[in-house]
Amino acid sequence: RRASNGSFRVPVRFWVRLPKRMGLATGRVLRRIHAGGGRHARAQGVQPKHVKGSAVKTNQGWYDLTQKKYNADIEKMPANITEHVAAYAMETTGKRLSQLPHVVWIGETLSKQGMRDLIYRCDSFVLPTRGEGWGLPIVEAMAMGKPVIATGDHSGPTAYMTEENSYPLRSVGVEEQTGFSMPSVAHLRELMRRIYTQRAEAEARGARARRDVHLRFHPERVRELLLARLWDVYEAR
């Protein structure tokens, strides 16, 4: 919704429900301000020191959701992720990673170019994500014309994934404590099998994805949108 000062306010139920799920407060969410919003925050009467990560203001005060929610998760992460994955494979399948068919585990951090090269060489891109702010890797894969499977009924990807340009993965629910999506494993298997057996359809959706991303998110298109927005702000002064 466009406010009188030219800014946009988007009500998102996720940010309304999250504080209560995390046990932070029972008050009503007044507004959300993202990091980097120092000037905007001051205009709203909020001190910049209160804007860290993603902050939510309730009638009981400001709360830094990002720090509280992710610090606990980071502390649970194993020091060596490769060993963690190997242990999980042994626990669930009784086999070592090297014994699993057609599975290659990359235990190193890839550069941006390395990641794009990897996506380019794939037949399809699969990301059963639990939540994305935007989902840049998904958009990059679509821009390369790859058939994409990703969680399509939760968070950022809902803005650009459709049944025509990708394979939106359904969720079976949302975690009460974190608000994260719980992608359906059964539907994931179904979609992966569908891409494998229906190659023509997958190629058509990949081609449509490339067209859609080019039309909506090409740098020249984004430039036009930014210039139009800046002109609107200028004229409203």
Features of the shown structure:
alpha/beta; 3-stranded parallel sheet; 8 strands; 9 helices; 14% strand
Describe the structure.
The chain is α/β, with parallel strands linked by helices and 237 residues long. The protein contains nine helices and eight strands. It has a three-stranded antiparallel beta sheet. The chain has a three-stranded parallel beta sheet with strand order 4-5-6, sandwiched between helices. The longest helix has 19 residues, at 199-217. The chain is globular. The two termini are 19 Å apart.
Low-confidence region ranges: 1-12, 25-53
Strand content: 5-15%
- Give the overall silhouette: globular
Strand order of the largest sheet: 1-2-3
Q: How do the helices and strands follow one another from N- to C-terminus? A: HEHEEHHHEHEEEEHHH
Average pLDDT confidence is 78
The count of β-strands is 8
User: Mind telling me the C-alpha Rg?
Assistant: 21 Å
In short:
By secondary structure, the chain is an alpha/beta fold. The protein is built from nine helices and eight strands. It is globular, with a radius of gyration of 21 Å.
Strand-helix topology:
Blueprint: H1 13-21, E1 29-34, H2 38-43, E2 54-58, E3 61-64, H3 65-76, H4 81-93, H5 112-120, E4 125-127, H6 136-143, E5 148-151, E6 167-169, E7 171-174, E8 181-183, H7 185-197, H8 199-217, H9 219-236
Helix pairs in contact: 8-9
